[in-house]
Amino acid sequence: MAGHIGIVGAGLVGGGWSIVFARAGEQVRVYDAAPTIRDEFKAVVGRQLDDLKSYDLVDDPAAILARIQVCGCLEDVIKGACFVQESVLEQTEVKAEISNAIGPLLDDGAIVGSSTSGIPGSAFTEHAANRERFLVTHPVNPPYLVPVVEVVPTPWTAQDSVHAALALMTSVGQSPVLVRREVEGFILNRLQGALLREAWDLFEEGYASAEDIDKTVSVGLGLRWSFMGPFETIDLNAPGGVADYAERLGPLYHSIQKSRTDPKPWSAGLIGDVDKERRAALPTDKLAERRNWRDRRLMALAAHKAKQS
Amino acid sequence: MAGHIGIVGAGLVGGGWSIVFARAGEQVRVYDAAPTIRDEFKAVVGRQLDDLKSYDLVDDPAAILARIQVCGCLEDVIKGACFVQESVLEQTEVKAEISNAIGPLLDDGAIVGSSTSGIPGSAFTEHAANRERFLVTHPVNPPYLVPVVEVVPTPWTAQDSVHAALALMTSVGQSPVLVRREVEGFILNRLQGALLREAWDLFEEGYASAEDIDKTVSVGLGLRWSFMGPFETIDLNAPGGVADYAERLGPLYHSIQKSRTDPKPWSAGLIGDVDKERRAALPTDKLAERRNWRDRRLMALAAHKAKQS
Question: The whole model's pTM is what?
Answer without folding.
Answer: 0.96
